[in-house]
Write a structure and sequence with these properties.
Elements lengths: L1 H21 L1 E9 L10 E4 L5 E3 L5 E6 L5 E5 L6 E4 L8 E3 L3 H4 L2 E4 L2 E4 L7 E5 L11 H4 L7 E5 L8 E5 L12 E4 L2 E3 L4 H7 L5 E7 L2 H4 L10 E6 L9 E11 L11 H11 L4 H9 L13 H13 L4 H5 L3 E13 L3 E13 L6 E16 L2 E15 L10 H7 L22 H7 L2 E16 L5 E20 L4 H6 L7 E24 L3 E24 L9 H5 L1
Parallel strand pairs: 1-7, 13-16
Antiparallel strand pairs: 1-4, 2-3, 2-5, 5-6, 8-9, 10-15, 11-12, 13-14, 15-16, 17-18, 18-19, 19-20, 20-21, 21-22, 22-23, 23-24, 24-25
Length: 566
Amino acid sequence: MKLKLLSILLLGLFAVSAANAQSKTVTGTVTGKADGLPLPGVSITVKGTTNGTQTDANGNYTLTAPAETAVLVFSYLGYQTIEMPVAGQTTINVALVDDTRQLAEVVVTGYQTKTRTDVSSAISTISSKEVADRPVPSIDNLLQGKAAGVQITAENGRPGGNAYIRIRGVGSISAGQQPLLVVDGLQVPDDVAPQFYSTLNANDIENISVLKDAAAVSLYGARGSNGVIVITTKTGAGKEKPEITYTFQYGTNTKLPDNFKLMTTAQKLQYEYDLGYENSEFTTYLANNNFPDDATLFNITDAQRRAGWDALIGQSHNWLNDIYQTGKVRQHQMAVSGNDNRTNYYVSFQMFDVDGITVGSDFKRYTGKVNLSTQIKPWLTLSNNMSLGHKKTNELRDVYNAQNPFYAVYGYNSYEPVFNPDGTYNLTVQGFPILEALKNNPESQRFLSGYNISTLDFHPIKGLNISTSIGLTYDDYKREAFTKPGSILDQYIGDPTAPGSKTDNGSTEFAMDWINKIIYKFDVNSNHHFSVMGVQEFQKDQLDSYGLEKKGFVLSDYISTQDNGA
């Protein structure tokens, strides 16, 4: 017995000593390499774990590493992140090197640009690499998770759909919540901004700044009360020689699997029987198989009932396979950029084609961009930025009823066929065949959106910059909705004396923005930097809209209202 206790004791001591050998306490001091001063608040973590600590006011730290093979990661704003292996050491002192690229990062704030070190406002910056070459057509959806305090919620799942953007929460119960959109210094009208998010090419973007607090958005007045999203597009500046790039992307869209299972056809039929319900498909089966007129699911024999159920099981199918599809995503882009001593340029063209995950849903977009800048004189520069995009979408009804394919998938029964024996569409238990509606009741939307801004920069003396800009935004919207004569929807809501209907509506909006700026920057000694800015801006907006409705179509094909009227 004593020998057994001694063995257990020795084993316990060995386990404790092994545990002590595996973990190691590391201490040290973190300083700046440039001046040798201690750095407080430096983050030190064990790579691959959540174990970490921070340096104190004197730059000292203490951390327990789980093993001698552990690697410590030292990170601090404005300094390069470094990794140091423990490798049996108990003291690790680190000197961090300034990250000049991070400190010199250019941030667009209001009507001017500053370096990150000169900014005290709440501004998040998103680089071109974070949004380029993504299979998402709308830029607002690409901002998800990219900036602190910015909430992005997709409106719905349709291809090219926009998103709700909330910066630092909801600011008003009744007023608008969307932030102001500024592209290349041009303010985009609020009602046009959603179309710009989905007609701009994300690959043309140089950076995006999100202005979040009152100090950052003050220059925009009431329009900036919900925050400001500033998009700057690419130029050819910095290119040593002309560049031609071509990119192609291909992918697929599919519905994610549900986290639940639907009943099988046999289970659903048994469930209906237990509830005392006879479905119309079984009633039709009885009528087509010479049963008496008073025969029902509940007064026939078990064998007869089972034979009828087997017949329904035999015609069962999965509505998900009928309504959903594997959509294709295709993207082509070509860009040419470069500069010489005085002129830089950036030209691009893109085709973006996305199929939705349901039959009848798709998104097609074509965009083109030309950015030019030339130095006329050493003190005079002329630049012009232009972008134009066209998109077309086939729309689905997204109300929560049988006209919504996502509802219909779960509202139909698997034993209900798509077509009746005579080839017509089966109304199903919902009374509405969604596949027939997608074919005979098409709805499409077209948008042509673009902008052009021309800027003349005059800088006669050092530190003084005077500029004037003329910006134009254009948005043309067209919608067509057609109800085919004799379709199921037409039979429900149409006029029997004038079958079929078509609605055409749209709008054209043209806005002008004239901006005059004067900025003077000067230094006092080498430690005091001053900037004085004055801005004058004039805006004008014109909106024209129209609406046409017609009913009573002689032809059943989907043709224009004008052709049918003729």
